[in-house]
Amino acid sequence: MASILISGANRGIGLEMARQFGNAGWQVIGTVRRPDQADALRETGARIEELDASEPASLDALAERLEGEPIDVVFANAGIARNLEAGPADVAADEMKEVFATNLWGPIGLACALKRNVLASERKTVIAMSSLMSSVSANDWGTQYSYRASKAALNALWSALAREWTGEGITCTLLRPGFVATEMTGNRGLPVAESVAGLCRVVESLRLSDSGRIIGYDGRDVPW
Ligand SMILES: NC(=O)c1ccc[n+]([C@@H]2O[C@H](COP(=O)([O-])OP(=O)(O)OC[C@H]3O[C@@H](n4cnc5c(N)ncnc54)[C@H](OP(=O)(O)O)[C@@H]3O)[C@@H](O)[C@H]2O)c1
Fold it and tell me: CA 28, 7, 56 angle in degrees (round to 5)?
C-alpha cells in the first residue's frame, strides 16, 4: 500500500487530499498544528501527527517520531497568505518573515527532515504546493507581494532540490491546485474536490522524469 504524508491536513485542500488519497487506498498521515481540533481529518481515517511546519523543532520532533518508516510521498501543502491586497509600501518585513517561514522554510524543512523516510520507500517523491502566483512571466496584475515572493522562492529552491536529489532517485515536483474555494480564498473558486481529484491524478502518475516541473491540477505545466 502506498503512503503519503500531507502537511496542513486539517482543512482546505490538505483535508480533501487526505480524504481522496484515503478513499483510493493510500495510507495517509495528515499533519496538523492542533490534533485536538482535527475531527474532520480523523473522520477520514488518516493517522494524525502534530506539526507546526514553520518551526524547526517541530520538524525535528516529527522526523524522530517517524524514524524508520518508509513514506512514498511527502506533500508539503501547508501554506499561508497575508495582506493580499496591500501595496508594495505596505508590505512589512515581519509579514515577509512569517510568510517565508511557512511557505518556503516549511516545505524545504519537511523534505529534509523526512528525506530518509522517502529514500526508504518505493515512490520516493517530495512535492511542494506552488501557485500560479509564483509565476513571474504570468504575473499580469501585481498585488500579493509576500505570497508571490514566497512561492517564487519555493519554486527556485525546489528546482535546486530537484537538481540535487533526482540523482538519488527522488522525484521533486511542484504542484498547482488552481484557484480553489477554501478559507484562503474566502471560499471563492473551484470546488476543492475537483482540484484535489486532479492533484491526485497527477501524483499517481509522477515519474522521476517529472522532477523539477511545476504541474497544474489539470496536468499542464505552469509557467515559471
Ligand atoms: N486555495 C487556493 O486557491 C490556492 C491556490 C494556489 C495555491 N494554494 C496553496 O495550497 C495550499 C493549501 O491552501 P488552502 O487553500 O487549503 O489553504 P487553507 O484552507 O487556508 O489551509 C491552510 C492549511 O495550512 C495549515 N498551516 C498554515 N500554517 C501552518 C504552519 N505553520 N504549520 C502547519 N500547518 C500550517 C493550516 O493549518 P491551521 O488550521 O492550523 O492554520 C491549514 O491546514 C497552500 O500552500 C496554498 O498556498 C492554494
Answer: 130
The Å distance, Cα 69 to ligand 1 centre, comes to: 25
In tens, the pLDDT along 89-126 reads: 999 999 999 999 999 999 999 999 999 999 999 999 99
Q: What is the extent of the structural domain holding 180?
A: 3-216
From 7, 11, 17, 108, the mutation candidate for ligand 1 (largest count of ligand atoms within 8 A of CB) is: 11
pLDDT score, position 32: 98
Query: Is 23 domain-assigned?
Result: yes
User: What pLDDT score was predicted for residue 12?
Assistant: 98
46, 43, 128, 54: CA torsion to nearest 10 = -90
Ligand 1 pocket, CB under 6 A: 7-8, 10-14, 33, 51-54, 77-80, 102, 129, 131, 177, 179-180, 182-185, 189
**Residue 94 placed within a domain:** yes
Q: Number of structural domains, the chain? A: 1
Could you tell me if residue 63 is inside a domain?
yes
For the whole model, what pTM was predicted? 0.98
CATH number of the domain that residue 103 is part of: 3.40.50.720
Instruction: Please tell me whether residue 97 adopts helix, strand or coil conformation.
Output: helix
